[in-house]
Amino acid sequence: MTAIANDIFNIDSITHANGAIEAILSINSGSTIFDGHFPGQPVVPGACMLQVVKDVLQSSLGSSLQLKKADNIKFISMIVPSLNDMIQLEISYKTVDDSINVNAKLVSNDVICFKFQGNFVRVG
After folding, report:
1. How far apart, in whole angstroms, are the C-alpha atoms of residue 14 and residue 2?
2. Which segments constitute the ApeI dehydratase-like domain (predicted)?
3. Greater confidence, 120 or 3?
4. Whole-angstrom Cα distance, residue 71 to residue 110?
């Protein structure tokens, strides 16, 4: 397992082929971030949902990336660590010029929790 997104998520498995990435993630319910977000009722912060997309994309492409533009971000359902111990991340991407166009979603128990559409660029 590889820890990502500030140790909130761990990558349990990942597949990458033809512009598509699928990862199975487990949630570290003991992460200290849940002490403040929110005490007694922990939920995964929205910023961490976006960060896990970037982390998995970087890992799969072997490049450091920077978010260039977020065209559409939707936080549809809360991810509660005690109820959602496994999350599926689906990313489709296409490289156009210097930009990586990305569509991603986080799914738990067949419920879409987060959707993202935007662009990243390689840095470094």
Report:
1. 11
2. 16-98
3. 120
4. 24
Q: Alpha carbon 22 to chain centroid distance?
A: 11
Residues in the chain: 124
CA geometry: angle 6, 53, 118, nearest 5 deg: 135
Domain 2-123: give its CATH superfamily: Hotdog Thioesterase (3.10.129.10)
- Residue 72: beta bridge partners? 117
Could you tell me the two tokens for 106?
Answer: 């986080």
Partner residues linked to 88 by β-bridges: 24, 107
Q: Are 55 and 91 in contact (CB under 8 A)?
A: no
Are the C-beta atoms of residues 62 and 85 closer than 8 Å to each other?
A: no
Helices (H) and strands (E) in the chain, counts: 2, 7
Question: Who's near 54: CB < 8 A, 6+ residues apart?
Answer: 65, 67, 120
